[in-house]
Specification:
The structure holds three protein chains of three kinds.
Chain A lengths: L21 H14 L17 E6 L4 H13 L3 E6 L11 H10 L4 E6 L4 H8 L5 E7 L5 H15 L6 E5 L6 H12 L4 E5 L15 E3 L2 H5 L4 E4 L15 H8 L3 H4 L7 E3 L12 H4 L6 H21 L4
Parallel strand pairs in A: 1-2, 1-3, 3-4, 5-6, 5-8, 6-7, 8-9
Helix pairs in contact in A: 1-5, 1-11, 2-11, 5-6, 5-11
Chain B lengths: L7 H12 L8 E5 L2 H13 L6 E3 L8 H4 L18 E9 L3 H13 L4 E9 L11 E5 L8 E5 L5 E5 L1
Helix pairs in contact in B: 1-2
Chain C lengths: L1 E11 L4 E10 L2 E5 L10 E4 L4 E4 L1 E3 L15 H10 L2 E6 L10 H12 L5 E4 L1 E2 L12 H7 L4 E2 L8 H14 L2 E4 L4 H4 L4 E2 L2 H6 L3 E2 L1 H18 L2 E4 L5 H12 L4 E6 L1 H4 L21 H13 L4 E3 L27 H12 L3 H6 L3 H7 L14 E11 L18 E11 L2 E5 L3
Parallel strand pairs in C: 1-4, 1-5, 6-7, 7-8, 9-10, 10-11, 11-14, 12-13, 14-15, 15-16
Antiparallel strand pairs in C: 1-2, 2-3, 5-17, 17-18, 18-19
Helix pairs in contact in C: 2-3, 4-7, 7-8
The chains are: A alpha/beta, B alpha/beta, C alpha/beta.
């Protein structure tokens, strides 16, 4: 797993939060804090990555995530090239490694990779030249480390500390790379109780071995929580062998004001987006005073800037 | 080359004296992290400046970033005023190559277009690499290239210069 | 050709013999064991001092990739690799393209193999046409063409009624069916053992239940029909327990495991190395340890390589997109020896799992060193240390999870049908 660290413990790639030392997570969050004000300036740019070429390599379409990476890279003055490979050469059968080699020949400095297969970012990171960094922007069900980091940044901004929190992650953990990254980050940062809440069909085998408490009853799981993270339920999973219907799911696992009232009164509500209102979350909660869903988006840019700057500069831990 | 370096407080007082004539109520003082901010804080108090003190962390603007990377403790820049049309006194502790001042000016311009920028440094140690010269200088020294002159702050807040 | 194998440590599981002796070979047969026959003049004397002389290995699953997958490996390359691994007889599964479901294809394969140096090739016929699991093949015709047993290989068996009919039909002629237990629905979409590691890595899981549910069906049908069934590539602790119990109840079944699964587990997946993408999936350490123990206590009858050369292009992709399987015919011996060393199992018992026992399962000559038997002999240096690399392995498939791993135990000579088909350079 040390593919993402150099021998002297610096960040070389960001592929997963699994196994990243707490010092590095904290350093990323601290660095992100210092990037926060760049977005509020007249010129929303710093020249840190001037002359660097960053390639958004999206083998799976995602306008949202790609855009936040693009904004982050541009605020660092990097040149950004977007490649939606899902719709270009991959369909012509070009192998991933050929695509990567071709882009490397164009003097890429960084690849931001999204792929439907778990481990795809690891695979690319293993093959790139030493000067190229890889950021995993989501691989299959495995990891989405920058999302996990921006969620930690959000929690720290609103709650200050991690060591006294109870955090619940609700919904489709089975298919969620976001949930996996969150669990690794929360446990590494010292959150004493991380809960996952969902029906048995949506919780993966042995998830408790990742250091979480499992709840199948949402009311019990939300009691006393400081942070509630709702996961997105993909359309294709709302009806079938995993769940009978979106309606029944919402009734038992959707976040409503009534269920939210079971958590601590100052609990915050998070969602990685895009939301399915009325499926995993009630609009009243999504738009309510406890929701921090929009700040999450804002923070996402600063966090991604921090990661890119640390990778490009090879900052010390 | 003096055997011992002079006390800092009189140097700052001397700097303040030099700056005072050009200071208007609209002039802002901006210190560069970390030593420049210490000096700027003193000047700000000595000159009774009406405007809030500005602070710059030029980590994001360094031209040696790709070689040495991001400083692990970047502090946010804090310029609590509109820069547009302002007269700025930019303060640093030691002027050496001039690269820090260049980065600071680049950053300032990303916040707006000041009317003027004047540079005040506690020590001008020579070995400039850019066409940047101070407008106000506390002390001019000829320090050999292999040596460094540093400003440090003691626990009691006292500032001292040292040669290493 | 007359060969005198001199002063080796003769390990013959069939006769439970383990002692230093000379072996004499003439006209493709073992003509002397301990004492030279009268008037024996060797053309070649092999000094086996310090070496082990055992029956040639019998590997129950080696994919030669012909016909259809010649870009992955060829008959020439893989038979050479098998000989280099000490293998003198191999069973070749029918998952070629087209599958071995017609006598003509089987005859062609046997003809091609007979004209090449290397081990005896025993095709395993397809149990259903095109391996589609719907219509039975002409098992009797295929048997006449040279098939030793019938199997679906890794192709799914979706229809239990067809499986029942296949067993009934095979039992009619006393043909053997080799079945890998995996419920196709429970395994659907999966690429790794459904456990803590797959959960952590976000790899879709294949639960142990996929094996045990299918195994329960197979065992029940075997009881009912009396068919001769060999369970191929067992992978779970629970599955082993079921086989053990069925044997204890008197059901005449045999089973094998792949040598990879004796040493590796789901924990080896953590770097997403596609060389760890195997069928069945590498399971938990608990399962691996159960396999190791079941080999010792005899619940598992044989070890095979499940040799599956895969083109490197099909491994140079993300884990989930990679072609499963490992090349391994040359590692069967060292991996068996490694297990024996680690478990404190005597050499005689370890060699039994890759010679005499699989020869019986396959129902072929060889696998022993009795006078009068065919001269299929493996001579190896038990202590020789080497590293598995693209250079040291002859197979065209470089896709081994053990690439760059140190190995102990290396073949020096492979004698097949009285000919020295492999001789290590030294």
């Amino acid at each position: 797993m040390n593919l993402q660290l150099t021998e002297d413990g610096r960040l070389r790639h960001l592929l997963t939060l699994d196994g990243l030392p707490r010092a590095i997570l904290t350093q990323i969050l601290d660095t992100a804090e210092s990037f926060m004000d760049v977005g509020e300036r007249e010129v929303k740019k710093v020249p840190l990555l001037r002359g660097k070429s960053i390639f958004n390599l999206f083998f799976e379409p995602s306008t949202r995530t790609r855009t936040t990476f693009e904004i982050a890279a541009k605020r660092l003055s990097a040149d950004v090239v977007n490649l939606n490979i899902a719709t270009s050469s991959q369909t012509k059968g070009e192998a991933i490694l050929d695509t990567v080699d071709n882009l490397a020949a164009m003097h890429a400095d960084m690849f931001i990779v999204r792929h439907a297969q778990s481990g795809a970012a690891h695979f690319i990171a293993r093959h790139v030249a030493p000067h190229i960094s890889v950021i995993n922007a989501g691989d299959g069900r495995h990891a989405h480390p920058t999302q996990g980091l921006l969620d930690m940044f959000t929690i720290r901004r609103f709650k200050g500390e991690f060591h006294n929190l109870t955090v619940a992650i609700v919904g489709d953990v089975l298919h969620s790379r976001v949930a996996r990254s969150q669990i690794h980050a929360l446990t590494t940062l010292g959150v004493p109780e991380v809960r996952v809440i969902g029906p048995k069909t949506l919780l993966p085998t042995g998830v408790e071995q990742m250091g979480v408490k499992v709840f199948h009853n949402m009311e019990a799981g939300l009691a006393g929580c400081d942070v509630i993270i709702m996961l997105r339920l993909q359309n294709e999973r709302m009806k079938g062998a995993l769940l009978p219907s979106a309606q029944e799911y919402f009734k038992f696992f959707g976040l409503t004001p009534e269920k939210l009232a079971l958590a601590r009164p100052d609990a915050i509500v998070m969602h990685p987006g895009p939301m399915n209102r009325g499926v995993e979350i009630d609009s009243e909660v999504a738009d309510g005073p406890q929701s921090v869903i929009l700040p999450q988006v804002t923070y996402g840019i600063a966090v991604r800037m921090a990661v890119m700057a640390m990778l490009a500069g090879g900052a010390t831990a | 080359m003096p055997a011992s370096l002079p006390d800092v407080d009189p140097l700052i007082a001397q700097l303040a004296g030099a700056i005072a004539p050009v200071l208007t109520p609209e002039t802002v003082i901006v210190g560069i992290h970390t030593g420049g901010v210490w000096v700027a804080e003193r000047l700000h108090a000595l000159l009774g400046c009406k405007q809030p003190l500005g602070m710059l962390d030029i980590s994001f603007y360094r031209d040696d970033f790709s070689r040495i990377g991001l400083h692990p403790q970047v502090k946010p820049s804090n310029l609590p005023f509109d820069l547009e049309g302002r007269d700025i006194v930019l303060v640093d502790d030691v002027l050496h190559s001039g690269r820090t001042v260049r980065a600071a000016m680049n950053e300032l311009f990303d916040y707006g277009r000041p009317s003027s920028i004047r540079l005040a440094v506690l020590v001008d140690r020579g070995n400039h690499e850019l066409p940047i010269r101070p407008d106000f200088t506390g002390l001019t020294l000829d320090v050999p290239a292999h040596q460094n002159i540093n400003l440090s702050r003691l626990d009691d807040g006292h500032l001292t210069l040292s040669l290493a | 050709m007359k060969i005198h194998i001199k002063n080796g440590r003769v390990v013959d599981p069939m006769s439970a013999r383990d002692e230093v002796a000379d072996i004499f070979v003439a006209a493709g047969k073992i003509v002397g064991n301990g004492h030279a026959p009268a008037d024996f003049h060797a053309n070649r004397t092999l000094d086996a001092t310090g070496l082990v002389v055992c029956p040639g290995l019998v590997d129950l699953s080696v994919r030669l990739r012909e016909p259809g997958f010649e870009y992955r490996a060829t008959l020439e390359s893989e038979m050479l690799a098998a000989a280099a691994g000490g293998v003198t007889s191999l069973a070749c599964p029918p998952d070629t393209d087209p599958p071995l479901d017609e006598p003509g294809l089987v005859e062609m394969l046997k003809f091609r193999a007979r004209n090449l140096p290397g081990p005896r090739v025993y095709p395993i016929g397809a149990m259903t046409q095109k391996l589609e699991g719907l219509m039975l093949t002409e098992m009797a015709e295929l048997t006449e063409a040279g098939c030793r047993a019938f199997t679906q290989a890794d192709a799914p068996m979706t229809d239990t009624q067809v499986l029942l009919r296949a067993m009934e039909y095979a039992a009619t002629f006393d043909f053997s069916l080799w079945l890998r237990p995996q419920d196709v629905s429970l395994a659907r979409g999966g690429i790794a053992h459904d456990g803590a590691v797959a959960t952590r890595l976000g790899l879709p899981g294949i639960p142990s239940l996929a094996e045990t549910v299918a195994l329960a069906t197979i065992l029940q049908l075997a009881r009912q029909t009396g068919a001769r069934v060999h369970i191929a590539r067992l992978s779970t602790r629970e599955g082993i327990a079921m086989v053990r119990a069925a044997k204890a109840q008197g059901l005449a079944i045999t089973c094998d495991v792949a040598s990879t699964h004796v040493h590796l587990s789901e924990n080896d997946l953590v770097t997403f190395d596609s060389h760890m993408h195997l069928v069945p999936p590498l399971r938990s350490l608990r399962d691996r340890d159960a396999i190791r123990e079941a080999l010792r206590d005899g619940s598992i009858d044989a070890l095979c390589s499940d040799h599956t050369p895969v083109d490197e292009d099909q491994k140079q992709v993300p884990f989930g997109e990679s072609a499963p399987g490992a090349s391994g015919v040359e590692l069967l011996l060292p991996l068996t020896l490694k297990w024996a060393r680690e478990m404190g199992v005597p050499l005689l018992q370890a060699i039994d799992l890759i010679t005499w026992k699989p020869a019986q399962i396959l129902g072929v000559p060889g696998g022993n060193l009795q006078v009068g038997s065919c001269a299929d002999i493996c001579i190896f240096d038990e202590a020789a240390e080497w590293v598995a690399t693209q250079k040291t392995l002859a197979s065209q498939g470089d896709n081994t999870p053990f690439l760059n791993h140190p190995m102990q135990g290396r073949v020096r000579y492979t004698v097949i049908d009285g000919h020295i088909d492999f001789e290590a350079a030294h």
